[in-house]
Amino acid sequence: MGTTSTPQGLDAQALRSKLETIAASHGIRQWDLGAACSTDTSVQVDRGEPKQLKGAQRSSITVRVWNSDGLVGTTSTSDLSDSGLERALAGARDASAFGNRNETPAFSPLATAPLSPLEQPLHQGQGILKLLERLKAAEQDLLSRHSAIGTVPYNGLAERSSERIYLNSEGACRQQQLTTASIYLYARAEESGRKPRSAGAVRLAYGASDLDIAGCIDEAAERTISHLDYAPIETGRYTCVFSPEAFLDLIGAFSNLFNARAVLDGVSLSNRESLGESLAVPFLSIRDNGLHPGNIGASNFDGEGTPTGPLDLVEGGVLKNFLHSEATARAFGVKPTGHAGLGAKVSVGPDWFEIGATPGSQGGQAGLDRFRADQPLVWIDSLSALHAGVKASQGSFSLPFDGWLIQNGEPRSIEAATVAGDIRQVLNAIVGFEGEAKITPDGLCPLVWVEGLSITGEA
Amino acid sequence: MIASVPPGSSSAPSLNAAHNAGSDLLIGPFDQRWSPRLEALLARGRSAGADLVEVFLERTDHIGVLAEQDTITSVTPAFGMGAGIRVFRGHRDGFVSTNDLSEAGLELALSQALGMLGLEISGSLGSPFDGLPTLRDFGLEKAAWLERCPGIQEATQRLLEGTARLEQVGSHLQARRASYARDWQEVMVAASDGTFGRDVRLHQSVGLNVLAADGEHRAGVGRRYGTSDSPDDLRHWDAGHSAEEVCASAGTMLYADYVEAGQMPAVLANRFGGVIFHEACGHLLETTQVERGTTPFAEQVGQPIAHEAVTAIDEGLTGGAFGSLSMDDEGMEAQRTVLIENGVLKRFLSDRAGELRTGHARTGSGRRQSHTFAAASRMRNTFIAAGPHSPDELISSVDRGLYCKSMGGGSVGPTGQFNFAVEEAYLIENGQLTKPVKGATLIGEAKEVMPRISMCANDLELAAGFCGSVSGSIFVTVGQPHIKVDSITVGGR
Fold this sequence. Notes:
The complex is a heterodimer. Chain A is of the alpha+beta class. In chain A, strand 20 and strand 21 form a beta hairpin. In chain B, strand 16 and strand 17 form a beta hairpin. Chain B is globular and about 75 Å long. Classes of the chains: A alpha+beta, B alpha+beta.
């Protein structure tokens, strides 16, 4: 038996001890690792019957090793036996022979810095039969909301218990335990002689007992029903009102604008000189803040052990900061920002966006109300196929969407359409914001008005 | 019954789970030695009241290498193992995956899967299970594949050759990338219906990507080439040809105008053009979609659903193709399945659960990304068959439309609405290709677009791809000859 776990989960000290022993036997002096394990339970239902009940125990580890030339190699594995750990270390050492001499990662200088505390209550799991009963009830409720809703083809209720660790050979030790739960309900509705329509909703929480299932049902029903009466839209240019979810999706897809790794690699729309330059309308702010209490499942350290925290990316329309790993921060002469993964070439990515008006600015046009507009508006509810329709390095996008055409205050669902443009054009064509910012799984954002976007319809 | 385990519970996930293995079974390949342990598991599951128990064992070995400009910037080895246990009772099933292949670990996973269906292991009941037959081993002849693949040193040299060729033949290149992935997988499937098979899979792919930039003009172009079961694949890769193809496309698209949106006829090129059938129709012919009630074709076997010019096939047999396999992830041998013949729907792709719940017979299409997913009906090598025309005949039949030379990814939604991106396109004017255009997205609905595929050319070719769906991301092939779609919505500016 190994000694890297206890009844409480991962045993960081035992894992460190084991790694130190194996490293010493291989002559490895510098190493770090990220380890994670989780237990997941999920259910799906189909018209009152259980469809698939699923459980998973997963564990994984990524090890980095610095060789005598200071080059880095990495290996990942789910085989956490003694022999697996040894093979991983040896594999990382072998891979280090191919390390990049031009850019070698180092330990984050902040890997032992104090972490911000997180309010993340740990929940006892409800168990699969309880989850099943709750999902069956939710499905039944949703099916009863409208005669046209015939099925809820995509649904799931899940809970997860997880733990992650970062250790390095200089004594850094980060550890996090977390429980989360999620529900998603996507209904399919069809009226006689009409095309089927679909929409849904998602909710996250720290435990299944805290999930806003009623809210999820209400939102899924309301959105699905709102798309039943649809019509084609004429191709043309429209002022578009992005839902918080849709705008956050768009910004997330173009986050290479803020990504120092992408800047160094030459695949970002930004460059080293872009900091301090105008990127958007002068009242736009974009902040990355993984520690926002609305970010369910937040982590207070990144893959390199660097503390996470708020970072202003755009303020007053001006690009203020990039997201960094240790290596990119060193290249820019700044501190790591807590947005790194773990690898030989460390990836960088955003956590959770806060988007809105820059404090002290007018915030664009005041009093925007999409139902009182004097022109036809396209209200974009959700974007699809971002993986295919976004050219992040070019700035362009062409994306199918679900939404409504609002004319004289009356919204009518759009049959099928795409929205196309350039992200820099979008950021400079923001008219203003409508309503309070809404917390979503990807961030915080109000409705965002953007003028002059190209819509292709089937009318 | 499985319960979600919060920290502090005695059965919290264990980082040393596989320590318990401690068995010679984990040394060497999966083989007949596993039979007693698997038989005991299957017997326990059947005794507990399960109609069928299936165990999927997996071991993986992966290497990824990335070259940027003229430097190797990332080498990422990874290896792992695990099991997925699925239990059926009536039309219901429970599935549990674990990294722990020890006897105790597998028993725990079985008991959890049974618990999902309200069943418990009982030590005293007799088992209505006759035992496993002799292992059907498709992997025997593949034992040396992993060793025959290029090592890291060789892979890095080939990739650097690729980025160097890009530099030679391209212009205005701001970023050059070459990447290589080698995925080796050993699987064993045992089920209480007597299934007992083993296979070894090998997938390799190499990709080139460039970002060309000139002032405000930018074009990002990428190509990925992949094969299965061919250890020498990377050695045979023609880096020069690939670099020329990528750079030619980037050079053309760098200064292209954005496409004008609207409804128009389109000619889609062969090879990766087949993504239109994959997204627009293929997914809707999986029994997974029948189960969900999300395919408009559920009741249309024997009826026309496409233009009579269209015959479509899904198969797992083509040698070296990315979606080929000796047996599927439920232990069934691969087949050739005619989906549509002269426009008439013939069959659905079906897996074990699909057969149980929809009545469509299995087609060797039960596939999954890894042991953490239950198998589902998925495509393999899917293509529209060749027709009688030359590609020029298709283009010359269009007065004004779009020629889609290179396709990006796509998706299909729960109502059958599909979309996919066009990476490289040209206007067709008066039957001739004219200027290049970019930024096009094609959207539509399967029921409407399939009858509009009115002409198929005689130049069928396949292309490797990855398909993400209910059972994860899997290796597939799409393909077609040049085809003409009489009218489709082109999203643009």
